[in-house]
Amino acid sequence: MPLLSIPSPDQGVWWLGPIPIRAYALCIVLGVILAVWLGERRWRKRGGTPGVIVDIAVPAVVWGLIGGRLYHVITDWQIYFGPKAQKEPYQALFIWEGGLGIWGAIALGGFGVWLSCRRRGLSLSAVADAVAPGIAFAQAIGRWGNWFNQELFGGPTDLPWGLEITPGQAGTVPGYTGLYHPTFLYESLWNVALGFLLLWAGKRFDLRHARLFALYVAGYTLGRFWIEGLRTDPVGGVDHAVEFLGLRINQYTAIVLFVGALIYFWVQRDNTKPEIIIDRSAEDKALVPATVGATTADADADSGATVVDDEPTEKPVGEAEQDEAEPDTADDRADGHDERKPGENPAS
Length: 348
Prior knowledge:
This protein is mainly α. It contains twelve helices and six strands. The strands form three sheets. The chain has a two-stranded antiparallel sheet. The protein has a two-stranded antiparallel sheet with strand order 3-4. Strands 5-6 form a two-stranded antiparallel sheet. The longest helix has 24 residues, at 23-46. The radius of gyration is 33 Å and the shape is globular. The protein starts with 12 loop residues before the first strand and ends in a 14-residue tail after the last helix.
C-alpha cells in the first residue's frame, strides 16, 4: 500500500447500549441541521416570517428520505429483486445501510416544501432560494457517510489521495489491492465550493424567483456528471453498472436536470413579480383572541397587532362645542328636551 493514501474507517456503527449509532445517518442529520440553520438565517434576513424554514424542514426531510430511497430502489432494483438479488426485498427499507438518490430526495423533498408553502400562502420560489446554499453544504456533509460505508468510490488510481477499500466491496476490481478514486471526497469538496458560490451570487446579483435554486441544480449536476464518470459502483445492476452509449444512468439524469435548470434560469430573468414571504396563517392565528369572550383590545395586546378604526370614536373638540351651542330643534322639544327659562310662556 502506498505511503500516502486515505484509509477507510474500520466500522461505521457504534453501539450505545442496545442502540446503534450509524455514521451514515449521523452525517445526514448533521447536514440537515446545517441546511435548516442557514436557510432560516437567510429567510429572516430577507424579511420572512421567523420559524418558517424550521417548520417546513420536517415534512421536507420526511418526503426527501422517501424520494431518495425510492430513486435508489428503482435504479438498483436488481439488488433487492430478481435472480441475482444480493439482499432480501424487505431490506429495501433499510435506509441506514446506505442508498439515497439525491435526485429523488430533491424531487419529493421539494414536493413536501410545496405542500407547506401552499398551506401557509408562501412563495415556493422564495423558500427555494433561501435554502439552496444550505442544501449544497448538507450534501457535502452527507457524502462522508459513504466513506464510512465504503461505497460510491471511483476506479483504481495511483494518486497520493487514493482511497483504501476493503477487497470484495461492491465496485472493487477482482484481484486488485491498490487504491481507488475517493469520489465521495470529490463531490463533498465540489458541494462546499458550490455552496459558497451560491452565497456570493445570491448577494451579488440578488437572484430571486428560484433562479438561485436553478443555479444550484446546474452547478451540482455539472460536477456530478464528471464525478459519476469516475465511479465504479454497479448502479442499475448487481455486478456491473448499467450504461447506454458509454454513460451511466445518473449521468443522463444530470444532463436533463442541467439543461432544465439553465432554461428555467433564462426564462425567469425578467420576472419582477413580488414573492410572498410573510406567513399569513401565522398572522391570522395571532389576531384570534386567546380565549372565548376576550375583547379585541386584549387580543391585540397579546399579539402585538395594531388595529386602526375606520371611523373616529370621538368628535373633534370644535364639533362638540358647536353642537352644544345650537338651539334645540322641534324634535328635541317633542322628546321632552325643554330648556326654557323658568316662567317663560310656552306659547311665546
